[in-house]
Amino acid sequence: MELIRTTIDSPTGALEMYARRGKVCALGFADARTRRLGELRRRFGPLTVRDVAPSAPELRGPAAAMRAYLAGDLAALRRIAVDVGGTPFQRSVWRALRRIPAGRTWSYAQLAARVGRPRAVRAVGTANGANPVAIAIPCHRVIGTDGALHGYGGGMRRKRWLLEHELAGRRQRSAR
Length: 176
Description:
2 domains, Arc Repressor Mutant, subunit A, Double Stranded RNA Binding Domain
């Protein structure tokens, strides 16, 4: 299996985007490359990774959408087609995550209710943490019932930055 990879600069560190067949199958911060490659190997088996520029035809659209999001176009994430794998339950959680509006948050309990499993809060949290396409599937928008920020694979500093970035973008849009 061959995947293509590109790197996109962000204010909180380089992002790595992996794709196959025109869809993003992994996205996350470059400092977690070893873990991400392990997850991709578990999913796909033996693989090779070919590095390409963000402007390469295979990743031009998704990379441009990610850069647009980072520049303030919060709706750009919807333009990123994803190939996530996962179990049916995980996929239901990841679809629900994409329905959380930018600049808003849901608690783990709200997310569990949205997928029709209100008592499965821990399972929802586990699925949220297993999200292979961070940011595009906005797992950073999930917080504790108490309103506190909890866990994020990219680190709490980055989760806070993403939420503040989205809140600032919503404020700018509503001020127009």
